[in-house]
Design a protein that fits this description.
The complex is a heterodimer of chains A (315) and B (637). Chain A has 315 residues and is of the alpha/beta class. Helices cover 35% and strands 29% of the residues of chain A. Chain B folds into 3 domains: 209 residues, no CATH class; 149 residues, no CATH class; 100 residues, no CATH class. In chain B, helix 4 runs parallel beside helix 7 and helix 15 runs antiparallel to helix 16. The chains are: A alpha/beta (315), B alpha+beta (637). The interface between A and B is large, with 72 and 44 residues.
Chain lengths: 315, 637
């Protein structure tokens, strides 16, 4: 049995006739902050709901602390904190009630930490939950989720719907908490700048399959963007190292994976090569999952995962 | 637990207060004297408030977290899976307890202040109240179970409606007696049993997460789907019964009628406008003869009147006969349906009275009326006659003739015949007060009046009353085959001179008869087979098929079984194509064989196409294109 906190092992999930996850396999090691990225409908929320036992996979398995997510008991759940994308709290309660409810339903609860945290966020115990702003609810959700000192914190797009200021505050709170507790975090997000700030490792889901499972540093090191103006008569380059070829005036923008010196030499021999600045995570995300434009060539992502698609068998 | 109750506090408090107030108001809407004084025979408003409040309570209790969107917020807590269910159940029981005990007491308190002289604190008046309110428990449990089902909203609503209709119909039918009363212990037991079963169903359902893309696990299917299909089958049986009744009425309308013309019985059909009557032969074909309808013609229809219980009933239970009262100088003497006797004075006070100085109550269903010169009552249990003596304010026994046992007090209509005039003179030697209806004591051997404290036989009265009754009412209708039956005339006991077997003979008659037979095939097979071995039950007739009950048309039952068998086989094939496992296929085959087409419809809804179950065996999924190897870590066994 591995010591990985989270393991997705070839998880497949269907909704009606649509495949949402196609053979998802991910391992999250203790202490890692893992960001699950993907476009809308890529399967991030489904993956997290399977992990929490709210949904069952059709194939494969998801385990948390070595326990199958379908059989999570109170013992395992006590070690998990969860922040949903809509920051659900009982609207019939006040902040004080919500804290008491959390305290009484969790075996461990850091009351002093909560007091300090809600004070820092400007929350008062008497405030009714429906009267809180979306940002305040997000902060309270996060405080309550980590108050029980979880070993695994699962956040499903926790910053969704927050404005830039609130998102930054939320992120700061999360960073502080991580510094204090050092727990493992698995979260999904659409805010790639935030992900860059806190994630150790990212997984990019596209169309139900995992395209990337890498550290940020490794990703940035291995993917190189450059401009290339071909000599007369030359066509766009191809091959397994060329992820994307986007036409521009007088040439192409190339996204290369693990480019070899021979590849650069070949490009220089057949045209003019101009190196681009180091891509951000957002650039990489768009290169890998973004829409195709007319004239653009890209290593077909579908082909990259074709064995998995065959395993899904229904498209 | 208390913590989860805190979460549920809004609906627990809201329903406890609002429901108790509604029930108390409903009780007060009924007369305080009737509810808290003499004891109610039935409680219409509290009954309807109780079941409606129960349904709302169960629905909200089961779906509270779903309504607030906090279902997963709760589910991710480190709590045993059964604890939220137990907390919700506890909340429901607390609310029901408040409704049961606080609402009647509150209503009693208000009534005591408002009508202080007319109410009395007696356990017997609370029994029908509490028994009527028991429907709150069963309806709450039904809604609770339906709300917990792992299914879409509309399916939960259908399940709730089916459970509600089937449970209330069956309990009412099984606990009712032949005279239209409802047995209190049986009714309470039935509804408590329904509540217990439904809470158990809810517990089984609460273990499963709603997921339309996965088949229900076998234990959940057994515990949840079986009650749903069974209840739907009962409801479908009741609905088909009504549809069949319509087809049978249409058939009766097209069957020819019989008229007596010049001493001869003739089969005829009226034309569309009813202006002419066309003679038909024994094969129901027109013969060409006709006549215009005349006033005062004797016409017989082949129509049957059926007894209470053959249609689906939904109404408040009637525990006993209504109370009766008879006027005395200072007010009324009231005999409650449960047997208690009271003197209700004009100044608004109610005082208990009864048999003898100890004020013993009468048996339920006892009768009271002004008979002769006394207010008399006949005890239904002992057959004794008692008269009310105003000087001592209680009933004193009236000696009966040797060997006589009195049955009841009943009214008789006195016409101007010599017999009735003689009987009337015997009843009122000093002269009649001019009423046409008067009461007498019906004994086994004769009709009596009470005069000067004694029971006096009125010669010929009983025979006269019996003849009048026989002429008006020929006894309980006998349930016969509605499609094929024989009419014999005259029906007054004289020799039969006309006999005709009505059965479908023309295309129009076959159309309606065929419609009724086709509707039989929609009925649950198990009820069809069971019904074919027993006579039409009087109390739950609405569940059974008049066309096949008591061994009628065994071929129709056989065809129904055959259709169910073919449907089960076809549905099994469909399930196999959908990738269902063998246990699921077996379960649905058995359900369709037992319950017929209704199970097919439920199966089509529940067992949706699941394409993932049909795909080829999985090949290894593609690894991610860009991977950073994980740091090596120690492994544990």
């Amino acid at each position: 049995m591995s010591k990985d906190v989270v393991v997705f092992d070839r998880v497949e999930r269907w909704f009606g006739v649509h495949t949402v996850l196609r053979g998802l396999s991910v391992r999250v090691q203790p202490g890692t902050v893992y960001a699950l990225l993907g476009r809308n409908g890529a399967g991030k929320t489904t993956a997290l709901r399977i992990l929490l036992g709210f949904l069952h996979p059709h194939e494969g398995s998801a385990t948390v602390f070595g326990c199958d997510s379908r059989d999570l008991g109170p013992g395992e759940r006590a070690r998990i904190g969860y922040v949903g994308e809509d920051h659900r709290l009982y609207p019939t309660m006040s902040v004080g009630d919500a804290i008491a409810f959390e305290k009484d339903t969790r075996p461990a609860f850091r009351a002093a930490f909560v007091e300090k945290a809600i004070e820092r966020c400007g929350l008062r115990r008497a405030q009714r939950i429906p009267r809180l702003s979306r940002g305040q609810r997000a902060q309270l959700s996060l405080i309550l989720a980590v108050a029980s000192d979880p070993e695994l914190l699962i956040c499903d797009d926790p910053a969704l719907g927050l404005d830039a200021v609130m998102r930054r505050e939320f992120l700061d709170a999360l960073v502080d908490l991580l510094a204090e507790t050092g727990c493992t975090v698995l979260f999904s997000s659409h805010f790639l700048g935030d992900v860059e700030r806190i994630a150790d490792r990212v997984g990019i889901l596209h169309d139900g399959a995992l395209l990337v499972d890498a550290t940020l540093d490794d990703l940035k090191r291995r993917i190189v963007r450059c401009g290339w103006s071909p000599a007369a008569g030359e066509t766009a380059p191809g091959g397994p190292n060329v992820l994307r070829v986007a036409p521009r005036r007088g040439g192409f923008d190339l996204t290369l994976l693990d480019p070899t010196p021979e590849l650069f030499a070949s490009l220089r021999a057949h045209g003019e090569l101009a190196e681009a600045p180091t891509p951000t995570l957002e650039d990489l995300f768009l290169d890998l999952t973004g829409p195709e434009r007319p004239g653009m060539l890209r290593e077909p992502l579908d082909d990259l995962v074709s064995p998995g698609r065959a395993a899904g068998g229904a498209r | 637990m208390s913590l989860l109750l805190r979460k549920d506090r809004p609906w627990v408090v809201g329903f406890a207060v609002a429901g108790a107030a509604a029930i108390a108001i409903a009780l007060l809407v009924e007369s305080a004297e009737r509810v808290f004084g003499v004891g109610a025979d039935r409680l219409e408003a509290p009954f309807h408030v109780a079941w409606i409040a129960g349904l709302l309570l169960g629905g909200v209790a089961s779906c509270f977290d779903e309504i607030l969107g906090t279902r997963e917020f709760l589910a991710q807590r480190p709590l045993p899976r059964s604890q939220p269910y137990a907390a919700r159940l506890l909340g429901v029981l607390v609310v029901l307890g408040v409704w049961w005990f606080v609402a009647p007491l509150a209503a009693f308190g208000i009534a005591s202040i408002r009508d202080s002289g007319l109410v009395r604190f007696d356990a017997s008046v609370f029994a029908p109240i509490l028994a009527t309110l028991v429907v709150a428990a069963s309806s709450a449990a039904i809604a609770f179970a339906a709300g917990t089902l792992p299914a879409p909203w509309w399916q939960r609503l259908v399940a709730a409606a089916a459970w509600f209709g089937a449970a209330f119909g069956i309990v009412h039918a099984l606990s009712s007696t032949t005279n239209g009363r409802v047995g209190l212990p049986g009714y309470v037991f039935g509804h408590v049993f329904v509540a217990v079963v439904m809470f158990a169903v809810a517990r089984a359902a609460s273990r499963h997460v709603a997921d339309p893309d996965r088949a229900l696990p076998a234990p959940v299917r057994r515990a949840v789907l079986l009650p749903v299909v069974a209840a739907l089958a009962v409801v479908v049986a009741a609905v088909v019964r009504e549809m069949q009744s319509e087809a049978i009425r249409s058939l009766e309308a097209v069957y020819p009628k019989v008229a007596r013309r010049s001493g001869e019985f003739v089969l005829f059909r009226s034309d569309e406008r009813g202006t002419a009557r066309r003679v038909v032969d024994s094969e129901h074909r027109p013969t060409g003869g006709s006549w215009k309808p005349e006033a005062g013609e004797d016409v017989w229809w082949g129509r049957q009147w059926l007894w209470y219980g053959t249609s689906f009933f939904f109404e408040e239970p009637r525990w006993c006969a209504s109370s009766n009262h008879t006027r005395i100088d200072r007010g009324w003497v009231v005999l409650a349906g449960m047997g208690g006797a009271f003197v209700r004075t004009f100044d608004g006070s109610l005082r208990a009275t009864g048999r003898g100085p100890e004020h013993a109550p009468f048996a339920p269903e006892s009768t009271i009326d002004q008979v002769g010169d006394a207010v008399a009552a006949v005890d239904a249990a002992t057959g004794e006659v008692w008269r009310f003596d105003p000087s001592v304010d209680h009933f004193v026994r009236v000696a009966s003739p040797a060997g006589e046992r009195c049955e009841r007090i009943e009214s008789h209509y006195f016409d101007d015949s010599a017999e009735d005039r003689a009987a009337r003179k015997a009843l009122f030697p000093e002269g009649s007060d001019g009423k046409r209806y008067d009461a007498f004591v019906r004994g086994r051997n004769g009709g009596y009046t009470v005069r000067s404290g004694s029971l006096v036989l009125v010669p010929g009265l009983l025979e006269r009353a019996d003849r009048r009754r026989a002429a008006r009412w020929s006894g309980p209708a006998q349930e016969t085959d509605p499609l094929v039956f024989t009419l014999e005339l005259p029906a007054d006991g004289s020799p039969v001179t006309f006999r005709h077997e009505f059965r479908p003979r023309t295309a129009g008659e076959w159309f309606h008869a065929g419609t009724a037979m086709l509707q039989s095939l929609l009925r649950p097979t198990v009820l069809q087979v069971a019904g074919s071995f027993v006579p039409m039950p009087r109390r739950a007739g609405w569940m059974f098929d008049r066309l096949t009950v008591d061994g009628r048309r065994p071929w129709l039952v056989f065809v129904g079984c055959l259709v169910a068998g073919v449907a089960a086989w076809r549905f099994g094939r469909r399930l196999r194509a959908l990738g269902a496992d063998r246990a699921t296929q077996r379960w649905w085959r058995a359900a369709i064989v037992c319950f017929g087409p209704v199970a097919v419809v439920v199966g089509l809804v529940v067992e949706r196409p699941r394409r993932h179950a049909r795909r080829a065996a999985g090949e290894p999924a593609a690894p991610p294109r860009i991977v950073t190897p994980l740091e090596p870590q120690e492994s544990v066994a």
